[in-house]
Amino acid sequence: MNFRYKLLIITGFFVIFVIGYSLGNEKMPFNDSLKIIYQDSLKKYSDRDFDNIDDRFYKTDVKSLINIKTENEIQEKRKNLIKYIWKENEIPTNFKFEIQENIIDDRFTSMRNLEKINSYQTIMEYDVDSIAYLFIPKETNNKLVTYHQGHGGGFILGYETIQQLLDDNFTVLAFSMPLRGQNSQPEVNISNIGTIELREHDNFQFIETNSFSPIKFFVEPVFTTLNHIEKNYDFDSFHMIGLSGGAWTVTLYSAIDDRIESSYAVSGPLPRFLTINVPGNEGHYEANHVELLENANYLELFIMSSFGENRSHVKILNQFDPCCFYGTSYKLFEDEIKSSLSKMENGHFEIHIDSETRKHEISNESLDYIINNLKLNNRS
Q1: How many CB atoms neighbour CB 63 within 10 A?
Q2: Which run of H or of E encompasses 256?
Q3: Do the bridges between strand 348-354 and strand 312-318 make them parallel or antiparallel, or are there none, so unpaired?
Q4: pLDDT tens-digit series, residues 296-344
Q5: How far is CA 110 from CA 16, 73, 127, 156, 370, in A?
Q6: Taking Cα atoms as reference points, which of 221, 286, 277 lies closest to residue 248?
Q7: Model pTM score
Q8: Are 232 and 208 contacting, i.e. CB atoms less than 8 angstroms apart?
Q9: Shortest CA distance to 147 belongs to which of 129, 166, 128?
């Protein structure tokens, strides 16, 4: 290999490193120019439009999809959701729930401002379980934030988010989605199909019946764990943050449980008319669950998550998200949600657009935005 060839290879690696580093470093002097180039490349080679709204989306009358005008209608929809998910009039409380206090997990032992970790395991039908960690800070502001990871893996992926919350003295309750992270992937025997391993959420369709909804796997662990914490601790308030599939969980759960004061859904669900046949937005089993959405569609869930004294729901969307829920289509429903809440004179809804990050993530900018919001005592 001659000197010129070696020099070209070294130069190429250096250029790739500089571009990659600068795209993730806001302080680089030519950061904005590189991002513009990157944005143009996304437009050129992608089947996704990050700036414009497709004409077909304007055909939907958004207002006609919202069947909530009063607090009583919100309560009725909550009851319907609970009955559909648990097949009972109220959420049951006789769950199998196991507690381990002051555990050692080497992945988290070096965290700053960490006093101890408690582990909570909710065990459900078909041996599907959920293992949550409660990160208790040495110095606390007495506010509990539930962090919910998405489909990408366990809540270890949210390490930086959890650490930043601890740095700001929040107690953090971290969850992974069903079948992800430390959670089980049990084998089940299904009539007329045979024995399969539950690995993906789409597998849940095989165990769904008229008397059992696997949707409970996504929200029941949050309910059981918060009930335990509420009985054994004295937090001033409960809040939720979720990324991607975790944002879907946050949206549904905060619509059901009004103990959640503020909720933040990052790169989370959009109304179905904005996602069907849209590249990247096809969604998983839970996001496309027709019967669930018949009880409350996404527009109504946004209202239900926002409604109440000192309650708020914030959608954070990454405009240039390479995964999903990208673009500017939120403009078609944002004002309708705000108008519905204004008429009921209770609750707060907003959409925050992150146009800087080019990743499917909670960016540093978005996390700062969330934490600054959380530090506010009340929302009007």
Answers
A1: 12
A2: helix 245-256
A3: parallel
A4: 999 999 999 999 999 999 999 999 999 999 999 999 999 999 999 999 9
A5: 32, 48, 32, 13, 24
A6: 286
A7: 0.88
A8: no
A9: 166
